[in-house]
């Protein structure tokens, strides 16, 4: 027998698969890749007869949707909610004090993005290479646009054009400019357009499987893509004229219009598919309480959703009072009593079967359209769009809308109409805490507070810092990106936020 010297290893994408929640789909996929200098028998030696050679796109699609949604819902609550000032942290709160380079209970979404964007790229490649998988092209392009937008909106310039390729691409990908990620070929808008076109031109009879957002309904994906187009056009509206395209989408009337069409999947009350906050030890859960920002907004509005999103504080004399804490306390020098502040509502821990992971909704779509109408970017009735958004937001959170809310405290004209539109969108998106922070950066609403003991010179951050592993593993490209952000500063605006 000839000697055969070879090495076998797994790529970063396969490592991340091992860490993912494959219990949801009931299958483990491990693809071993290797290099060799042997003269014979290599294929026989390196083939596992008990493991599938090819990855199926339906399993990947299910995995990408679930893993990204589950992990980012947790990230959005533990870290995004601190940046967006929905909640504040009593301890382990360097992140809440805006030392964003020190993630603790959350605050490191980078690997979540790249793990799932790599897996999604496998789906896209399979759909382009194999005619029998063509039905997956549209959803894969739409998911790529969605996740890429969330990534670049947090960090700014990021690896994109050379990323997501696994062993087929460079191990040190360049950082693409955010403008190119949005506007370039195979960028966010291009993938949404191509994704819709791929769905509309699909004439095969193979069903889309593994789709836990729309159960294989391709028109659901088209509505999702159009709502995302509205969202991202508004996001870049300070950089270019988006009126004509927004008006065209609005007139076509093919976007998410009711809660039954939302891009969501439901959590359960029990493991393994409940909201991860329910699995934290009680001390970690009790670390997050209502922020003073959230308290003031909900109390001023006399908003009935307060009892869904939070609990009365334990020391309340009447049993139905709510109290928030200013973000960013110095836990080493400030003593607080948990019983004096409102914890997150039972929907986030005991009753997570009432909660879902939220990719895009009708309420967010209508608030974006209301803003567009109020700003004169589309010809439409801003107040009507706003009131539909509020109505659907109350329904989304399973709270009855008081009959006088839209004519009283919640009226669009009760103060600054634009601020009211954005604030209502902020309230409704509590499960997507990063979104509240991103939209605050774009619009300045709602008016967030200077935090108690800032570690960032009393400035509210306007981007996430690149993680330390990028400096170690992709140093040359990281250095260029860091130099473009004043040393990886969290106070340098991303492209669409620059004047």
TrEMBL record:
Keywords: Lipoprotein. It comes from the Bacteria. InterPro entries: SusD-like_2, TPR-like_helical_dom_sf. This is SusD/RagB family nutrient-binding outer membrane lipoprotein.
